[in-house]
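Posting for a labmate who doesn't have an account.
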Amino acid sequence: MEDGVLKEGFLVKRGHIVHNWKVRWFILQQNTLLYYKLEGGQKVTPPKGRILLDGCTITCPCLEYENRPLLIKLKTRTSTEYFLEACSREERDAWAFEITGAIHAGQPGKVQQLHILKNSFKLPPHISLHRIVDKMHDSSSGIRPSPNMQQGSTYKKTFVGSSLVDWLISNTFSANRLEAVTLASMLMEENFLKPVGSRSLGAIRSGDLVEQFLDDSTALYTFAESYKKKSSPKEEIDLSSVELSGTVVKQGYLAKQGHKRKNWKVRRFVLRKDPAFLHYYDPSKEESRPVGGFSLRGSLVSALEDNGVPTGVKGNVQGNLFKVITKDDTHYYIQASSKAERVEWIEAIKKLT
């Protein structure tokens, strides 16, 4: 990190006038959050805009957009609102933590509080589990179950563990993720919720209450009264469903060179195993389907030289590049945001080829 830079990386930002979503490169400093346009895999200077953090309030998780569950909302002293989307819950929470620290930089007590997790949690006397479940069922502001696939089977009316944790915090039933996980475990103990699928059922075997409910985007749960499992007949499973049924190993924003026009665009990449696939999504769209992807079986992955523009790369794009060659000899040129990130992606992909 450069001097004065607390964190940097890709986030998807909602526009102010036209509410479209665009990827920007963000740099967090002690009292300012800068954001840049990207052209040809490089940030365009000067910055496209800046968010002054003095007097800012932060909302995380922010659930104002149903199809964008990984949002951070910033409201400045002048009441300007910024919506920023991360590529994963872990990345969203890391950004929220650093931004909150920057907002309270002049208040050491506040910063210290950020590092303290409450290890004991008791349900406030004025809140009952029944009231929480009633609110979870609310048609406008509650949890919205949907079909989810896991290991080739489709589970109707389910939701993922991390989305329930977000919802409990957003509705002020819990102050932090640890409290929310404990509360979700209580709901499960009292048979309001049921685990669905191998990931969440496996956690039940743990004797620790906090570990029984998983704050995880691959662990499925359902309301106890609506538990239904539908095994998908083999003839109904299309190739894309099989591709997307694997366990998520890694995800993040990376720049990718297009095959036809050779232009560079930031995509959200998701690496899955069993089966091994690398899919990429357009982060400016709300669709949950990938815009492309390929099998990693028999693929080759390698880093490209950092000095000069490598062969096959169009434009003055250099630094932190790597290449994946698929079994059918299709070449994918990808750019990470740092050398360390490039190493992480290459190592993760190599394990699955």
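Reply:
Got it, the structure tokens are right above this. The chain has three domains: 5-114, 129-227, 240-351.
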